[in-house]
Structures are given as structure tokens and as C-alpha cells.
Amino acid sequence: MQGFVIWGAFTVGVAAFCVWRPNGARVFLGLFFGAMGLGIHGALIATNPQRYVDFAADAPWPIYRDIGMWLTEPNPLAFGIFMLTFETATAALILSRGRAAKLGLLTAILFLLGITPLGLEEVPNVVLAAGMAFLLTQDFPTDVWTMLRRRRRRRRPETTALPQHRAAAATKETR
User: Fold this and answer.
1) pLDDT tens sequence across 97-135
2) Longest dimension (CA), the chain
3) Rounded CA gap, 6 and 9, in Å?
4) Which whole-number Å values give the CA distances from 34 to 23, 37, 108, 140, 164, in the listed order?
5) What number of other Cβ atoms are within 10 A of residue 104's Cβ?
6) Least crowded by CB within 10 Å, which of 21, 45, 98, 161?
7) Angle between the 22-35 and 2-20 helix axes, to the nearest 10 degrees?
8) How many C-beta atoms surround the C-beta of residue 21 within 10 A?
9) What does pTM read for this prediction?
10) Apex 62 CA angle, 60 and 68, nearest 5
11) How many Cα atoms are found within 13 Å in the side-chain-facing hemisphere of 62?
């Protein structure tokens, strides 16, 4: 129950962030999906791929349990690598621009809704999916990499003046 409350509070906060600051929320969600893909799945692949089978076996709905076991039991490591790739690619799409960003958001929404029946702790996924659905109504004409480059360029001070020793040398040459 504690996981449900913590994840529920997180999803409510992120859903509100989606409405309050859509572009900031998109960046956060892209980084979040990337961290989940690389961090969670990377750790499971490295330490205990069998956990995928255990998670599937614990699904409360028989249909989800059967599908989960069918997907994970033959090769938990391959399933983990697929999940790492899937979530990381979804993150890259979310951080893109235009249709690619919307495709990433839609993919993430469907993923969140698809895993919701796996347990009580996943039920707040619906709230996060709703916040992300709001993002589908927004335009994202710029990818995150371009946004970062522009921001860095604006913060870099313009140094058009020559340093003191070069200015003196240039003055001597023109005489």
C-alpha cells in the first residue's frame, strides 16, 4: 500500500506539472522514461533478470499472468533487453519534436495503461497517462537537444573585445 501512495502522489504531481508547464513536463518525462529504461531495466538485466518472471507470475489478472509468463519465462534476459530498449527509445521520442514527440508520448501512455492491471501499485499510472494525454494537445516544435544548445548559447557571454595584450599589439602594427 505504501508504494501505491508514493507512486500515486508522484503521478498526481507530474500530471499537474503537465498542465502547468507542458514543455518542462515533457522534458522531465523523457528523462524519467530514459532513467527508468536504463536504470531499472539495466539493473535488473545486470543483477536478476529472473525478477521479470516473478513480476509476471504475481500479476493479479490471469490473462496478464499468462501473457506475462509467455513473454518473460523463455528468456528473461532478452525480455529485459527489449524493455530497456523500448523505454529508452520512448524517452528519445518524447525528447524529440513535433510528431515524433507526440508518438513518444502516445507510446508512453499506452505502455502505462497496458501495465496498469499488473498490480495495485500500477493503478496511479492512469493519472500519469491523463497528464501525458494533455501534452498531446500541445505543440513541441523544438527538440530538447536544440533547446539546450540555444540556452547554452544565450548564457555564454559575448566577448567581442580583444584581450589587452592583443589590442596593444594590433595598435602597434597599424602605426
Assistant:
1) 999 999 999 999 999 999 999 888 999 999 999 999 999
2) 90
3) 5
4) 17, 5, 11, 19, 47
5) 25
6) 161
7) 140
8) 12
9) 0.84
10) 85
11) 0
